[in-house]
Amino acid sequence: MRRDPFDEPPDDDPYELYASEEEVFSADTHVDPAEERAVAELRDRFKQDRVFYSRQLEVQLEGSFFHWVTNRAVKRLVAEDHVVAEERDVENSSSVNLLWRKSYRYPRREAAKVHALVEEYSRPAVSEAVGSNGENLVLEGFSRHQFVQRGRNVNAFGAKAWQRTNQDIDFIFERDGHAYGIEVKNALGYMDKDEFDSKSDLCFELDLIPVFVVRMVPRTWLEELRKLGGFVLVIKFQLYPKLLGPLASRMRDELGLPVDTPATLWEGTMERFLKWHHAPSGDGDS
Predict the structure, then answer these.
(1) pTM (2 d.p.)
(2) How far apart are CA 72 and CA 113, in angstroms?
């Protein structure tokens, strides 16, 4: 039986072995050591007769490398003619970059299967349902712990309003005299850094404490926001609704993606936020 991560206590560090280093280049060789390690890891992975795609590899290797490091390493292997890259359109979305070892003799059947599954989970109806599910789980989780909702999809709070962009924040919750602006991103990839920064600024402008509930972001972003008084609640899994359970199972089993279908946010996830909420000056762990 597959072990359900939502039935187990979360790790103290939600990143586990996640890359903690900045991108550091040698002054003499201009070599990024993280990229070199990612290239070596990918060479080993591409020894398999398998078809991968870029986002899949970024997510699978995020325990060791930032997504952009893996992406650069993939491009190097393609440029070195070690890996074949084939871009295919995805209906109602962008394209997918399929990848396989050049010596893989018969990749077409598997490439078609991977492409079809990516196209299925990229459909607008699926994306909308997954996004709404993430927000609903967060709403239930915070409400269950006596956080009072003060707004949803808003860009004003009290006498203040955000006018620099047309953006809003998903939720405003309040408890124990603290008001939080909460943005939810239930996606496989990192959210856009410009959006991360502007949503943080929106919260500060409205005298809200910025909180991001995400599957994953780079640790450097987390630390940056923590120093400013905000918080990133890392889920690690993309949360699909129960009705899409068969699709989630295929994504997990066939593509090795961190996808699951919990009925609620596991209690340990909320406990991490509560620990930070109750910590003096909000200096608990993200």
Answers:
(1) 0.87
(2) 25
Of 220, 234, 143, 145, the closest CA to residue 184 belongs to 234
Measured CA to CA, the distance from residue 115 to residue 119 in angstroms comes to: 6
Q: How far apart are CA 212 and CA 232, in angstroms?
A: 5
Dihedral sign (CA 190, 196, 192, 166): positive
Going by C-alpha positions, the residue among 283, 269, 179 that lies closest to residue 227 is 283
Q: What is the pLDDT along the chain (286 residues), one digit of tens a residue?
A: 233 333 343 444 444 434 444 444 444 456 789 999 999 999 999 999 999 999 999 999 999 999 999 999 999 999 999 999 999 999 877 899 999 999 999 999 999 999 999 999 999 999 999 999 999 999 999 999 999 999 999 999 999 999 999 999 999 999 999 999 999 999 999 999 999 999 999 999 999 999 999 999 999 999 999 999 999 999 999 999 999 999 999 999 999 999 999 999 988 999 999 999 998 665 555 6
CA–CA gap between residue 66 and residue 123 (Å, rounded): 26
CB contact at 8 A, 151 and 168: no
